[in-house]
């Protein structure tokens, strides 16, 4: 069983050129212009909407009007049907970040292309090169504040008992247990966070796994359907893809922490945990291993 938040390649192919359809390619600029893109697709990346004055790269530009104006240049209006795609095997969940951002800004007609550019090209579907110049849209943002959480609010949750809230770390296991990462002041994870790697939910053809399989994977991690779930990573990108995965699985209350580890690790009032034993095993320094 698939989900209405996804659109398959057959359906999108049949809808190309339809009035009100906006297809967004969130890959790199060079891949879009020179490697080819879906006919009519416009290009943008999550970086273009970041706070230009913040060190943590994942924080959204607080000037919502500026974001609105940029989205309008892509042809987006509130009533537009927006389809987002990327190369699922060659990004950090960028299509999820764009989906979360637009949903946070109040857009209600969003879908992600299941399989993305990988499946589209594998099926030898049409593509074109160069830029697209759409008709300017009239999108007006109405932020849904409940879809994001700030550092200070998350700090309050961490410091209290929070059985009804699950904090989920979407980064790699190495990052989660505490491997040093260049540019990150403190390695480790938020106390009580559950590790769920963002990239474990795709089939070999880049399509998303069946919803029932996803739900079972999340439940095996101890994430309950009745919980509020808060996702984070390094800059709220991989976490936003996990946000989409959770929504696909039917979790009703999901939030993204856009500041994520870039912000959390820089505030020494924010608690951090490491798993030293797991880190030693990953690095090959497990002291419990005995030479034969």
Q: Can you tell me about this structure?
A:
With 292 residues, the protein is of the alpha/beta class. The chain folds into 2 domains: 137 residues, 3-Layer(aba) Sandwich (Oxidized Rhodanese, domain 1), CATH 3.40.250; 136 residues, Rhodanese-like domain (Oxidized Rhodanese, domain 1), CATH 3.40.250. 30% of the residues lie in helices and 11% in strands. The chain has 11 helices and 9 strands. Helix 7 links the parallel strand 6 and strand 7. Helix 4 crosses helix 9.
Task: For the largest sheet, list the strands in their spatial order.
Answer: 1-5-4-2-3
Helix content: 25-40%
Morphology call? globular
User: How many structural domains?
Assistant: 2
Order of helices and strands: EHEHEHEHEHHEHEHEHEHH
Radius of gyration: 20 Å
How many helices does DSSP assign? 11
**CATH domain topology of the largest domain:** Oxidized Rhodanese, domain 1
Termini separation comes to: 50 Å
Strand count, sense and barrel status of the largest sheet are: 5 strands, parallel
In short:
The protein is α/β, with parallel strands linked by helices and 292 residues long. The protein has 2 domains: 6-142, Oxidized Rhodanese, domain 1 (3-Layer(aba) Sandwich); 148-283, Oxidized Rhodanese, domain 1.
Q: Layout of SSEs?
A:
Blueprint: E1 6-7, H1 9-15, E2 21-25, H2 29-34, E3 42-43, H3 64-73, E4 81-85, H4 94-104, E5 110-113, H5 116-122, H6 151-158, E6 165-169, H7 173-177, E7 194-195, H8 211-220, E8 228-232, H9 238-248, E9 254-256, H10 260-264, H11 276-283
Parallel strand pairs: 1-5, 2-3, 2-4, 4-5, 6-7, 6-8, 8-9
Helix pairs in contact: 4-9
């Amino acid at each position: 069983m698939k989900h209405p938040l996804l659109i398959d390649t057959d359906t999108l192919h049949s809808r190309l050129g339809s009035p009100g359809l906006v297809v967004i390619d969130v890959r790199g600029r060079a891949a879009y212009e020179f490697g080819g893109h879906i006919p009519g697709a416009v290009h943008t990346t999550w970086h273009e909407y970041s706070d230009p004055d913040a060190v943590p790269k994942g924080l959204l530009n607080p000037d919502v009007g500026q974001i609105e104006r940029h989205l309008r240049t892509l042809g987006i209006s509130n009533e537009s049907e927006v389809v987002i795609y990327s190369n699922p095997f060659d990004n950090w969940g960028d299509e999820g970040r764009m989906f979360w951002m637009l949903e946070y800004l109040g857009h209600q007609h969003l879908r992600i292309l299941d399989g993305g550019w990988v499946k589209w090209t594998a099926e030898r579907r049409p593509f074109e090169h160069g830029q697209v110049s759409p008709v300017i849209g009239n999108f007006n943002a109405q932020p849904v504040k409940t879809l994001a959480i700030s550092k200070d609010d998350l700090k309050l949750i961490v410091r209290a008992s929070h059985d009804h809230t699950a904090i989920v770390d979407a980064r790699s296991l190495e990052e989660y247990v505490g491997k040093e990462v260049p540019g990150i002041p403190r390695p480790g994870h938020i106390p009580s966070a559950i590790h769920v790697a963002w990239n474990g939910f795709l089939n070999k053809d880049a399509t998303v796994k069946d919803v029932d399989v996803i739900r079972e994977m999340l439940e095996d991690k101890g994430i309950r359907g009745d919980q509020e779930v808060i996702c984070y990573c390094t800059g709220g990108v991989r976490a936003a893809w996990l946000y989409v995965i959770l929504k696909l699985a039917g979790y009703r209350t999901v939030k993204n922490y856009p500041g994520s580890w870039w912000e959390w690790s820089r505030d020494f009032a924010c608690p951090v945990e490491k798993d030293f034993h797991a880190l030693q095993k990953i690095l090959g320094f497990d002291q419990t291993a005995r030479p034969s």
